[in-house]
Amino acid sequence: MGLCSVAQQWCEDALMLPSHPQLTNEDVKYIVYTFADVLYD
Hints:
Layout: H1 3-16, H2 25-40
Helix pairs in contact: 1-2
C-alpha cells in the first residue's frame, strides 16, 4: 500500500545523503526497486 511512493521518497532522501557518494542515481534506483520487488514477492 503506497509502496512505490515510499520507495520513491526513500530514493530521493537517499540521494541527498552525502554518506554514500559512490552510489549513483541508477545504483540507488536499482537498490530501491530490488527491495520493493522482494517485498512484493
